[in-house]
Structure formats: structure tokens, C-alpha cells
# Entry
Amino acid sequence: MTRPQNASTPAKLIPNLGLKERNTFGLDAVAEFAYDISSAEQIPAVMSDIAKQKLSWRILGGGSNVILPSTLAGATLLMNILGQEIIKADDEAIYLSVGGGVIWHDLVSWTLENDLPGFENLALIPGTVGAAPIQNIGAYGVEIGEYIDHIEAFDVKDQAFVTLQQDACRFAYRDSYFKQHAGRFIVTKVVFKMPKSWQARIHYADLAKQFPDNASPSPEEIFLAVCKIRTHKLPDPKVIGNAGSFFQNPIIPNEQYETLLRTYSDLVSYPDTPGKRKLAAGWLIDHCGFKGQRMGAVGVYENQALVLVNHGGGTAQDILGLAKCIRDKVHDKFGVTLQIEPNIL
# Structure
């Protein structure tokens, strides 16, 4: 395991830190005060300092799921706790401990290199491991919550480190206990339970199309297929600023779905919980005519209507203005309300 420097070393404090390279939308933003958190043991002192100064604060990982204003007043904690290691195994699973600052896609690659399949459907999702359970990231029929054994975090309310088992995390579609209690927990470590019994999960249409003659592709083949699909659909943030999927796929009652289907026979959807149907938000947005459209410095990506992009010089207000236009049009046309996925800071 790659370990941080001496845990007793105080977190580095950086005033007026530019964050353009720390958010995938490429928004010009400045943190009034930034703390470089490289060890969990640094957090109590940092939070004590913040409380004494009565500063507002937030955590920033890879900046892949946030919309930043031009100035972030108060304190911004940069999550840079690294390292991953196998800590134990039993008859059913192998347990993997990972620091909150590890880049998610790097971890996916590492697990495959170490014969620990399971995350391959989640390849190329931007962001850090610490942020993954908050949003309960998911793709192609897999959600990260199902692989989590427990999470270690600092409870800001009680000023103590806590361990939350999987059931206490209350994972749901793009939701968790951490998201429901925003600002209370700082995730420092995630322990994953990687089942020894693995089977390919390729039931989502886009992924299944990659294997027309192969019902049991290897984890590596699925990984490469997912990377191929996402690279085609999603722009590289280093080239065009974006936060990946901007809206959640809405979940509606079956009755509403059946009504829509009578008008829109090609409506794209997926089964959800009993009595519910998950609609493809990208399809809804595309059928409102937004794909490839531009509004000043921001727009909708030409290859995937679910992705909003910053062509350069865009602001949080520009992005949210475009998002409002899309939400209003989708609601007017389909009677469905889209929820924004990135966090608005």
C-alpha cells in the first residue's frame, strides 16, 4: 500500500488556490483557503481550526461531480489520501481497503491487474474513491454500493471517526446516507468486498451490442468495451470541460410509462423496482432537440445529450441556465422532472 507522509505532519494550508485544474468542467474558481489532506489523522485538527474561525467548508476530490462558483469562500479540503491493499479474504470474497483520494478509474485498472474483477462496468467514471459511495456511482447495471463492505469516515457532527457498514450507508439509485447528510461525513477509506464468484454483466443494450457472439466475455473484455463506449459518448474533460452525465435517469410509475409509450413507441427505458420504470434521460433531452446545441460558452455534447459541456470561459451560471432550459422543456413535453447529478457548490 502506498502510504502518505508522516501522519503527524499538519495538513498544508494554501491560500487563494486556483481550482481550474481541479474541476472537470474547467471552471475558473478560487478557493479562499485550501487544506491538502494526505492523511485521515490530519482531519480533526483541520476541522477544529475551521470551527474556531467559523469558516464554511467543503470537500473536493477529483472535481468531477461539482459545479464551482468563481470564489469558494472559507475552507476547501482537498482529498488526497492515497493507497490500496488487500487486507483479508474468506471463502466468498476478497477485501480491499482503498484511500479516499485514489482516482476511481485507476482503482478499476488496478483491480483487473490484480485479478479482482467486479468494477469493469464502472471503468472511466471520473472522480475519487471517497466520492464514489456518496453518489453511489453506477453504470451499465452495476452500482458501487453492492461491493462496499464498510466505510471509514470522520463525523464532523460528533468530531469522531466512525465506521459505517454497508446497510447503514442506505445505498439507492444515485443516493446514500452520506448524500442525505451532506456536510456531516468526510470519507477517508472504503473497504470493498470483491466476490470470488464472478460472472459477466452485459444486459444493458449498449454493452450487449459489443458482444453479439459472446455471452460470457472476460472482465478485461468488458472493461475495454466500456472504455470504448464511454470514450465515444463522453468528451475528455482535458479537451472539453464536462462532468459526465449531468442528469439522473428519472424513475417513474409504470402507469406513467405506459402512457408515454403510447405516444413515443421508441421511448428508451429499463426495468426498476416493482411498479417503476427508469427512463433514459439522454433520450428525453435528445428528443427535445438539445443534442449538439450551444448557448454561449456552454452547450450539449454532440454525441450524448446527457452531457453538458463548457467550450471555454463558461461559468456556473451559464451551465445552470442551460440546465434550466433543458429541465423546463423535458417537463413540458414528457411531464418528467430531471434531477441534476453534480453538486452545486
Notes: The first strand starts at residue 12 and ends at 18. The chain has three domains: 12-79, 84-195, 235-344.
